[in-house]
Amino acid sequence: VSTASMAELADFTGPEVGATLAISNGKLKTGGKSLSDTSAGVALHGGYVMEATKDIAVLFGIDYNLSNVKSGTGESENEGRQKIYFKNPYSLSLGAGSLVNENTLAFAKVSYESAKYSYGKSNSTLKGYGLGAGARYLLNKTTFVQAELKYTKYTKAAGKNIDDATFSNTQFNIGLGMMFK
After folding, report:
1. How far is CA 123 from CA 36, 54, 87, 100, 153, in A?
2. Is the pLDDT of residue 119 over 80?
3. 3-state DSSP call for residue 164?
4. Dist CA 50 CA 100 (whole Å)
């Protein structure tokens, strides 16, 4: 009998909230140039985990980054050097998880992603998808720590002079969460 089969998947289920330290590497590619920058900030999380089978959990989540994600510094003809940001990034996610041992749940997820692109006076809306994987460790019956690596690719950008641009963000998250039982 494996340790995972003796663990209780139900220990990870129910509504949850949390806060995360998000370390991001935002990237922008346009006109043969590639810009990137690293930033850190705080993100908030809300979600629900339910038991789909005795071995598989389904994770639903919403995450909102309170900080802007830097993606470089660009040179504007009229405005000089300007910081480039992804502002107000948020995601809606769906994932699957499985027990590694009685205190650890490994998971993978896909997400819908959205943010505002900001460069000087230019602003536009970005939309795309994210792929993430990570693990949660139970500290007690209602508290967990979590680590996750997530890649976001923005596939749609609406705005001036950004039709040829591609945007992405690689993010490492480490956080603390509470479940309501």
Report:
1. 18, 47, 10, 43, 18
2. no
3. coil
4. 17
Cα separation, 125 vs 155, in Å, equals: 11
Answer whether residue 3 shows pLDDT above 60: no
Does this model's pTM top 0.85? My answer is yes
> Residue 12 — φ and ψ, nearest 5°?
-100, 0
DSSP-based three-state secondary structure for 102: coil
Neighbouring CB atoms inside 10 A of 142's CB total 14
Q: Which tokens hold the place of 24?
A: 């991001």
C-alpha neighbours within 13 Å on the C-beta side of residue 13: 14
Element (H, E) at 4: helix 3-6
Q: What is the residue whose two structure tokens read 């006109």? A: 31
Dihedral over alpha carbons 132, 63, 28, 128 (to 10 degrees) = 70
For 181, other C-beta atoms within 10 Å of its C-beta total: 10
Instruction: Indicate the SS3 state at residue 120.
Output: coil
- How far is Cα 154 from Cα 164, in angstroms, rounded to an integer? 12
What sections of the chain are H helices per DSSP?
3-6
Cα–Cα distance between 120 and 177 in angstroms, integer? 36
Per-residue confidence (pLDDT) for residue 159, from 0 to 100: 58
End-to-end CA distance of the chain: 28
Supply φ then ψ for residue 41, to 5 degrees: -165, -175
